[in-house]
Every structure is written in structure tokens, then in C-alpha cells.
Amino acid sequence: MVCQATVRQAGDVAIIDLRGRITLGDGSWTLRDTVKRLIAAGHRRILLNLKDVSHIDSAGMGELVAMYATVTNQNGQIRLLDAQTKVLDALRMTRLDTIFENFTDETAALRSFGPVELRRCKSTG
Q1: HSE-up of 82 (CA within 13 Å, CB side)?
Q2: Which residues of 63-99 are buried (b: 16+ CB within 10 A; e: fewer)?
Q3: Is the CB of residue 96 less than 8 Å from the CB of residue 64?
Q4: Rounded-to-integer distance, Cα 36 and Cα 48, Å
Q5: DSSP characters over 56-107
Q6: Which CATH code for domain 4-111?
């Protein structure tokens, strides 16, 4: 199954629910495009729900690293939720488990971002 992404909001945290495989091609592009759109819209706190991700390859791991750099360069934070065994193994093999915090509980993951940030509205005029 090609990677699919849906976005939902919990306070000021954008949660990306991913499903399928994050692999070279469509899977990594889906992840990249989704995160870029969120950053462009002003989101700085992102939670990747990996519960339904069955596989991630080196291209997918590269996307995670690029996404981490993009988000942190924008003074943002990114966390992982519910990474399954194959994804956790890949994170451990590449030592990315030392960079990404992975939570098994969504409430705990959301709390890890700290208090809700108030966003300033841009004035138009």
C-alpha cells in the first residue's frame, strides 16, 4: 500500500496519521509534501502517527531526517507516535531513535510538546 496521510489538529499540534509504506517514490513524497504544507501554514508542532506504517526504507528514513531538520530550523518540534516493530528496528539501526522521541500514548505525546502556544494572527491591512 502506498503511503497515505491525513492531518488532524489537537490544540496547536498537527497530527499526521500515516498509513502504508514510507518508501522511495510516492511514500516519501507524501510525507515530505504533507510536512511542507504544514510548515508553510505556520504549524511548528508536529506529531507523526506511525501506527499503520508497515515499512520504511532508507528513502523514508532520509525523509524523516530532512523533515526533522526542516521543522527544527523553523523553531519547531516533531515527535513520533506508535512506531511499530519494523519501523522501530529501522530507527534503532540508524540510531535515529536517539533523535526522535517515540510515544505509545497520544495524550503523553501531546503533553510532551508543553503548553499550547498562542499564535498571532497576521494583520491584513
Answers
A1: 17
A2: bbeebbebbeeeebbbbbbbbeeebbebbeebebbee
A3: yes
A4: 14
A5: E-HHHHHHHHHHHHHHHHTT-EEEEE---HHHHHHHHHTTGGGTS-EES-HH
A6: 3.30.750.24
pLDDT 10s digits, 5-58: 999 999 999 999 999 999 888 777 888 899 999 999 999 999 999 999 999 999
The pTM (predicted TM-score) of the whole model is: 0.89
Please answer whether residues 20 and 2 qualify as being in contact, where contact means their C-beta atoms are separated by less than 8 angstroms. yes
Residue boundaries of the structural domains of the chain:
4-111
The region that residue 114 occupies, defined by phi over 0 for left and psi between -120 and 50 for alpha, beta otherwise, is: left
Grid cell 500500500 in the structure block, residue: 1
Q: Other CB atoms closer than 10 Å to residue 122's CB: what's the count?
A: 6
pLDDT in tens, 83-102: 999 999 999 999 999 999 99
